[in-house]
TrEMBL record:
Residues 46-103 are annotated as: Disordered. Keywords: Membrane, Transmembrane, Transmembrane helix. It comes from Trichoderma parareesei. InterPro entries: Glyco_hydro_beta-prop_sf. This is Uncharacterized protein. Gene3D superfamilies: Glycosyl hydrolase domain, family 43. The chain crosses the membrane at residues 9-27.
Amino acid sequence: MLARDFKRLLLVVVPVVVIICTILRFYQHTPIAPSKVNEWLSDRIDSSQGKGNVESDHEQEAEVPISFGHTESSIEETSKDGNPTTADGPPPRPPLSNTPNPLDIQASHQEIFSVSTLDRRYFPIDFAGQLNGMNPNIIPHPTLANTWIVVAQLVRSAEEQSVYFTELVCNAVFQDGVLRCLAPPTALPVAPTQGNNCNGDLAFFSLNVGPHDARVLYGPESPYIVYGSNSQFTCFGQFIQDFRQLVDWPASETGPRDFLTGTELQRPLPWGAIEKNWFPFWDPAGQMYIHYDVAPKRVFARAQADGSVSVNLAVLTEAEDDRCLASYMPKADNGLESVHQASNSLKVTMCKRSDAGCVPNKDNTFIFTIWQHKTYYNFHSVYEPYVMLFQQEAPFAVHAVSKRPLWIHGRQQHLDLFTSDMFYVTSIAWRRADLRYHGFLDDELFIGFGIEDGASGAIDVTAEELMSGLDLCSEA
């Protein structure tokens, strides 16, 4: 009887003991939640309560590269909150550190160096007086050795409110690594224009008096100035004039006498309300054309002496140009980025003048210009310049484009503000007076640029260095 009761007790107790041991072993070897999950939950809770560990956040994001805008070619659209997004989602936040990683210039840009300054940096332009200029143009003086004509927009202080705009002009020489005016600059006597086509938000443009953002340049024979002013066709247009009519130019200098007074240039329809940055170019026969846009579509036309133009001739090469530019041009459709023209044009033969076998022909000679990719992040504009070559003869198809933007040696990064100096390229010109429009790879040229809307600088480089970073459209 006792034995039978003991067996019954075992049948009850043993399963209970097994169950209890199993439960104890489970709790000893398995936590309620994995430690990494606990850490993630803790971080999320702290973050949502505004008590996140800033130092920890910095450690997690320290390897995120800084975006200066120019390399963000993957940006496709803007999210509902106004922040740019990519195909992989929103871009990463900038690092929280006050000393973020610098931009790797060698990887992201083609850095160019001065051939004349001791430190190979760009050189400033000194206007030798109380007046200051920005967005400069530099062309060699036609008769004075080692002297250049500088034209730049007058800079006013933030306190000065005026409807009068002025282009300054002076003769300049190099002194102590600076291109310095020999005397304080004077106002270029560009006649103001009238127009009654500025309405609504643009009505204030009707009050404008004087030229804006001039481009002074050499054509094949004659120098010209192209500038913005009030238009008879739209609100604000582009005008051209023979530069010799505005300065003390030697009478011995000959050449075509077109555009003796300021002449408004026209364009194929449609007009923009504010037109800017147009540049002329010439074919081998000396016929002038005007290039209006490089993006979103190329637009150019043949120009006449009265400012009238032909239809848009870019349609003849539209398919191949679009394919080339789409391959090399940064995308700029998120509202914070844009692509537009910047400089005038020059012609270059892609071999060296010093080579006996270097003979210009239609296959080795091209027209080139500089356009810019503008970004506006952190409330600061930045412009990244690219070189573009196109054929010197009709149909003027695009031949090559910079694979990376240019970085002018001496331009500074401002890591605490997640940005860099704003250099705005405005002009290109051969350094030698006898070259005018056409040069070779071993010829030197000036690239002029404005600095932060308050100063002027330039760099002298060989055409060979400038052209060394091109990608051919045939390889697009």
